[in-house]
Design a protein that fits this description.
single chain, 263 residues, alpha+beta, Helix Hairpins, SH3 type barrels, Alpha-Beta Plaits, 3 domains, three-stranded antiparallel beta sheet, 7 helices, rod-shaped
């Protein structure tokens, strides 16, 4: 006992000190995580990003705390840190695609090019955003199909968000035959627009002759509506114009070719 007593006292003191370091460090880690949580709540950060950052911070600080406690015990951590770094590098290379999606998810949650409930077009899909996860985004298409898109491609490639603004401009092209009065067709089109309450008065709808084609005269109609009314209006306007043209005796031309034979 006399021979080993100094070593017992030394290592016992180290164990007690390591336990104290762990306990005090754990309290500090919890306090930092709570501080980060409150800061993200005040800045209205996306909940999924907030939880992920809190978990990542907690895990990282716990690892540092463990290394510190083991160092207090006298365990040399140089080799352990080297092995941990090599393992992290290998892990990162193996999961490079997953890490790209993770980084894309973080960028989406921070910069918010779209949010849950927005109607977007991306990667060839058109649908409503139902969930933004850390690795992927869930879309629900207009025909009720679930589409999972990796966040890496969403963050690095172009997308169209149709829900950002409260209003949208619709554009339609209607054709009349040569010889038909443009003024009469314009009056019919304006009457259709004025009868639909979803068409906004401001900005003022525009109706103009846009093209003289081989078999038709094209009239372009531009009108504004609320984003929520856009798609129903887009389909209804075409039907109403078709019915109004029929009632007024305005025919809709089709491609045709006149052939003249000289004897």
């Amino acid at each position: 006992m006399e021979e080993y007593l100094p070593q017992i006292i030394e290592y016992g003191g180290r164990i007690v000190l390591a336990i104290l370091v762990w306990l005090v460090g754990s309290i500090i880690v919890r306090a930092l995580v709570r501080f980060i949580k409150k800061g993200m709540e005040k800045s209205h950060t996306e909940e999924s990003l907030s939880k992920f950052v809190q978990s990542l911070t907690k895990i990282g600080l716990k690892i540092l705390l463990l290394i510190t406690a083991l160092s207090v015990l006298g365990i040399k951590m140089t080799a352990f840190i080297t092995i941990l770094g090599a393992a992290g590098l290998a892990f990162g290379l193996a999961l490079s695609g997953t890490l790209q999606n993770f980084a894309g998810g973080v960028l989406i949650l921070i910069f918010r090019p779209f949010k849950v409930g927005d109607f977007i077009e991306a990667q060839g899909y058109l649908g409503t955003v139902r969930d933004i996860q850390i690795f992927s985004t869930i879309l629900q298409t207009v025909d009720n199909v679930k589409v999972v898109i990796p966040n890496g491609s969403l963050a690095t490639q172009s997308l169209t968000n149709y829900s950002v603004h409260e209003t949208r401009r619709g554009q339609w092209v209607f054709s009349i035959p040569y010889g038909e009065s443009f003024d009469r067709a314009e009056a019919v089109l304006r009457k259709v627009l004025e009868a639909d309450e979803r068409v906004l008065d401001e900005p003022t709808p525009m109706i103009f002759l846009s093209e003289l084609n081989d078999s038709s005269v094209d009239i372009t109609v531009r009108a504004w509506a609320k984003s929520t009314d856009f798609w129903p209006l887009n389909f209804d306007i075409k039907q109403k114009v078709y019915e109004a043209f029929n009632q007024e005796g305005i025919s809709i031309p089709f491609p045709q070719l006149d052939v003249h034979l000289d004897k």
